[in-house]
Amino acid sequence: MLLALIRGQQQRAREATEPSGGLLFGVWGLAWLAGYLVLFLGWMPAAGTPAGWAFFVFAGLLAAAMVFTGIHIGRRSAGVRGDSAVTGTLYGWSWAVSFAAVFLILTGVARAGATVEVMSVLANSLCCLVVAALYMAGGVIWREWRMFALGAWIALISGAAAMAGAPAGYLVMAVAGGGGMLLAAAADLVNRRRERSRAAVVPG
Amino acid sequence: MSVLELDPVIHAQARLRVVATLASLAAGDRIAFPKLQKLLQMTPGNLSTHLRKLEDAGYVVLDKTFEGRSPATFIALTSRGRYAFEAYTSALEQLLKGTQ
User: Fold this and answer.
1) Where does the Winged helix DNA-binding domain lie (chain B) (predicted)?
2) Which of B24, B36, B90 to mutate to test the interface with A (most CBs of A within 10 A)?
3) A170-201 pLDDT per residue, tens
4) Closest CA in chain A for residue B88
5) Predicted ipTM?
6) Does residue A75 belong to the interface with chain B, where contact is any CB pair within 8 Å?
């Protein structure tokens, strides 16, 4: 009984102080799946680019996922200070700095005279490379092999999407990218259930 | 192993829950008093009493600081406290094995 009490309390404490990987993977998986699908369906063959409204919906979905992530992490980490807060802050800044660099690079490449097709392939590849590398880094920091594997998977499929070109690449991103994240979310859910029942079953 | 060998500071159920909660944080982390109180669902007075006992035993440190202008207290497990908690849980596990 005492051991169950200890494990139950620790489980509760972790759920109140640590962000839920499964929840975040799920939200981003849905945003990617729907967003890239919209880019694929909004493709205009004559213009060689998705329609403006498709980009608008895509950006809106990603922004919504970003806001959700910020609120979720903010709520969970509120009231906890120390080493892990420092790690989290630095990790957050690496996202901001990396995406600022991506924006500058894309602006530079466009100015250098890149075509619409080059820009669309490069923009997606660079963004996904940052996501992939930082997921892998996060996996290393928090010893979360699922997060690391997801990062590695995103790196591979964004390479494949670049090879496939537009609009097929968007379909690759939607199904394999968004789908991969949803799979990771499902795995996390199953794992959490198992942990919870283990905490409840312990005798004594 | 007998029950008498279990650490009396932690063996009180309320303090065991306090220490278990603090031990679930990463080493080097501290938690704000209101958040700890909410996690444990204890009254402030009750929690303060238990924290004082744990502090006297050298198991926790209370860091009194300011958040803007309002005073705030952050609580962390000391390495001694973490060791005591681990020793306590492994003693419990041994006990359970003995009864099976």
Assistant:
1) 16-96
2) B24
3) 999 999 999 999 999 999 889 888 877 776 65
4) A3
5) 0.86
6) no
